[in-house]
């Protein structure tokens, strides 16, 4: 396939590099100039004649601006595959705009981070027409290990922010429970051994344990270098609350997690740290 790839940052560059092993990839980025990818001089040039144009951009406003430019340049019937994490409303607006221009659109945000992008082991959660999903499936298979079709346009973003709202909430719960266990005199290894095999188990405890030296290797064992940075967690939690407001959904735990990560990133020392650094944050604090 001929693929245009727009947004070659931390995630986009390795994803494009993996695709370029099997496909004809032409990239565009306003800043990044990654090695090994043929670059166009504009987004429109990268999109022209492509069968699939992939975008991997920072937010919904940038996606909407780039979409307006590339949709005008794309061949009718071509697919715009957006892998950025953006608000559901932007994803749906971009899909509607694509349809009006005779294009197909898929929103397929990812889970798996920079390691997953580099190793081709991302998980994609996709929204959009079944036929377009089927056409893009071979690309998901190169860039990732799993792609789930979640329904119509915007449902990929919906799945991503619901997943990450659970992630933010459970990480906080896991971290505060470790600190309570510390203060009650419970050894962290014993705490892990019990919880990881009891009803409190979770991905944040069993796979990505926030306590250094306990459980499998995780960012906690590397001085909380990300991993998944606290500010990216905050971005996704804010998207969950934007969506919850729009859909009139009551999400008190998501709201509390958003407020706590906002405080950690914007008023404390959380920026640049892994989101599991909530554990040393709680450790330093008292009840009030
Ligand atoms: P990044 O900031 O490293 O990359 C974004 C790239 O987009 C940059 O290179 C930037 O120059 C480029 N860009 C900005 N405006 C542009 C424009 N108008 N035209 C062309 N290029 C433009 O970010 P990232 O970490 O690669 O993340 C990309 C997306 O993936 C985000 O939506 C993020 O939330 C999501 N995501 C990131 C991770 C992660 O671990 N980094 C994990 C899952 C999802």
What does this structure look like?
With 288 residues, the protein is α/β, with parallel strands linked by helices. The protein is built from twelve helices and nine strands. It has helices at 12-20, 43-47, 60-73, 88-100, 113-119, 130-143, 155-183, 188-195, 203-206, 230-247, 252-266, 278-283, and strands at residues 2-6, 24-28, 38-39, 52-55, 79-82, 104-107, 110-111, 122-126, 144-149. The strands form two sheets. A six-stranded parallel beta sheet has the order 3-2-1-4-5-6, sandwiched between helices. The chain has a three-stranded mixed beta sheet with strand order 7-8-9. Strand 5 (79-82), helix 4 and strand 6 (104-107) form a beta-alpha-beta unit. Helix 7 crosses helix 10, helix 7 packs across helix 11 (252-266) and helix 10 (230-247) runs antiparallel to helix 11 (252-266). It starts with a strand and ends in a 5-residue tail after the last helix. It binds nicotinamide-adenine-dinucleotide. Nicotinamide-adenine-dinucleotide is lined by residues 6-12, 28-32, 43, 56-58, 62, 66, 84-85, 110, 113-114, 228, 232, 235.
SSE order in H/E notation?
Answer: EHEEHEHEHEEHEHEHHHHHH
Task: Describe the strand arrangement of the main beta sheet, using strand numbers.
Answer: 3-2-1-4-5-6
| Strand segment count | 9
Question: Cofactors and ligands present?
Answer: nicotinamide-adenine-dinucleotide
Percent range for helical residues? 40-55%
Q: Which stretches are low in confidence, meaning pLDDT under 50 for 5 or more residues running?
A: none
Report the β-strand fraction as a percent range: 5-15%
Q: What value does the Rg take, in angstroms?
A: 20 Å
Largest β-sheet summary: 6 strands, parallel
Q: So what's the overall shape?
A: elongated
- Number of helical elements: 12
- Overall pLDDT metric: 97
Q: Find the structural class using helix and strand composition.
A: alpha/beta
- N/C terminus separation: 58 Å
């Amino acid at each position: 396939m001929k693929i245009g790839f727009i947004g070659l940052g931390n995630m986009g560059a390795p994803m494009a590099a993996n695709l370029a092993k099997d496909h004809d990839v032409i990239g565009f980025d306003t800043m990044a100039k990654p090695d090994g990818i043929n670059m166009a001089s504009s987004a429109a040039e990268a999109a022209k004649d492509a069968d699939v144009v992939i975008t991997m951009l920072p937010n919904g406003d940038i996606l909407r601006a780039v979409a307006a430019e590339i949709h005008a340049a794309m061949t009718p019937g071509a697919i715009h595959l957006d892998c950025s994490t953006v608000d559901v409303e932007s994803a749906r607006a971009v899909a509607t705009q694509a349809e009006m221009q005779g294009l197909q659109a898929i929103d397929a945000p990812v889970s798996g981070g920079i390691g997953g992008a580099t190793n081709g082991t991302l998980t994609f959660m996709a929204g959009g027409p079944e036929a377009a999903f089927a056409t893009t499936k071979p690309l998901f298979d190169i860039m990732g290990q799993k792609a789930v079709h979640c329904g119509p346009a915007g449902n990929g973003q919906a799945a991503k922010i619901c997943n990450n709202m659970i992630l933010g909430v459970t990480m906080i719960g896991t971290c505060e429970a470790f600190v309570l266990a510390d203060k009650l005199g419970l050894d962290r290894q014993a705490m892990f051994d019990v919880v990881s095999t009891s009803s409190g188990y979770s991905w944040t405890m069993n796979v990505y344990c926030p306590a250094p030296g306990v459980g499998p290797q995780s960012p906690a064992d590397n001085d909380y270098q990300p991993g998944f940075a606290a500010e990216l967690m905050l971005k996704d939690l804010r998207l969950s609350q934007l969506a919850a407001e729009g859909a009139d959904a009551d999400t008190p735990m998501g709201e509390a997690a958003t407020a706590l990560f906002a405080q950690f990133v914007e008023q404390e020392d959380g920026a640049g740290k892994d989101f599991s650094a909530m554990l040393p944050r709680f450790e330093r604090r008292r009840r009030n």
